[in-house]
Amino acid sequence: MRFLFTVQPMFGHFHAMVPLAQALQEHRHEVAFATGKSFGPVVQHAGFRHFPCGFDFDGSREILQELPEWETIARKVPSGPIQQLYGFIEGLGPRMADDLLELVTTWQPEVIVRDPVEFGGYIAAEYGGVPHATVMWAFYITPKPIEGGKAVLELRQRYGLPADPNLDSLDGYLVLDFLPASWTFPHWPPPPVTHRFCAPPFDRSSEAGLPEWHHSLPLQPTIYATLGTTFNQAPATFQAVTGAFSGEKLNLIMTIGHANDPSGFQPSAPNIKIARYIPQTLLLPHCAAIIFHGGYNSLLSALWHGLPMVIIPQGAGDNFPTAYRCADVGLGVVVEGTPPTAEAIRSAVKTVLEQPDYRLRAQQFQQEIKALPPLSEAVKRLEVLARTRAPQFNNDN
Fold first, then answer.
1. Which end of the chain is less packed: N or C, by CB atoms within 10 Å?
2. Which residue ranges form the domains of the chain, and what is each CATH number?
């Protein structure tokens, strides 16, 4: 069978989909990714076929800011998550859909699997009569109850699709969730076609490794800090994080993103190390806690390793909801401020380290995630969808 993954050309979006795509390959299915041309080397390096589709982008910056029409789109709605959603729908959606319409005809995938803010794949699937699935992040992202729903309806109309005023067709076949039921937002339930599976985090290529200096750190607890791969243009926040560890009997390893220069963040003590990027799957087993921005991949990695968290939300639309949910379920402490103070970060780190309930709660989530059905079951579910072309309702939800 052929499965086409449609994804925004951004590292976090791609990484969230790789484990499922690898599982399909392991079961001898054909898998390809449709995304921006300049992001193709990342896709191919991970072992997948790449179709250049949509906005040509390499993932090095915040993608919406690069859209020629972004200022026009941004003026329509207030700043924040809804504005970003409009950008994904109106700015990026048509570019991807235009390229995919021909690809769906020529390559003929049995199922299209899209990232939750990639709407061109949804349009192309509906246009070509192909069933489609969505890989969910920390919570169910839907434009239905907000103004973004109107933008999707207009997108459907643009391509001559039948009227669907309630957008029942959006995520109407299958949604794949890699977090346990205890994480689910109580007033933000996913659709009835949602199924949960255990997906190990992905963030590296085979040759990646830990830096040599990791072995020379002082013998004391190590904290990892990241603001993700996209919304990391925050030098004052990075400085606040390093300031929080000056004089503390803790190690700090901080990654600042490929587009930033570590030499611009001079560490003030030998217990502080700064790098552009280190795979979390290699680093987190050596850490006592994580400071992060509220992004999905870092959340999954932290839970996979049972680590308590300090969350400093940044500009992505999912950061604040994820941060507050972490606090609500007892996984960590939220630190706000643009930038936050070093004192607030230091206090939060000490809280999650010194109060054992945070670590115990993280370890409970760790156990729940690893007890979910394996990705081989997700493959079976996708195979059923390809054969039946019918919604995959979950009676256990």
1. C
2. 2-198+372-388 (3.40.50.2000), 212-370 (3.40.50.2000)
